[in-house]
Amino acid sequence: MKLYEIKWEPTFDGIVGDIFFENGLGASVVCRSASYGGEKGLFEVALLRGTRENSDLINLTDEDNLKICPEFRRDEVDGWLPLKKVEDLLNRIERLDTKHPSV
Description:
Elements: E1 7-11, E2 14-20, E3 25-31, E4 43-50, E5 55-57, H1 63-68, E6 77-81, H2 83-95
């Protein structure tokens, strides 16, 4: 997954984008004044389940998935991320196993 695959849109004071993967999960990526790190040009990533048209914020409960993305143990959002870490996190979200009853 590369950052250019994200559907980016301008907001009144930054940018926001989302991407969804074949495993049924996705992410919202935001950099604006109200996002975690946005005032410093850093990004926040929110973990989503669903589709672009209908999605919900989630956190992870499955221990195997938490080994891949421990950032989402207690919170649906990870912030203060430079773009390289955003790309790394999105690649890990894409690898999560959603076959478990609890993601």
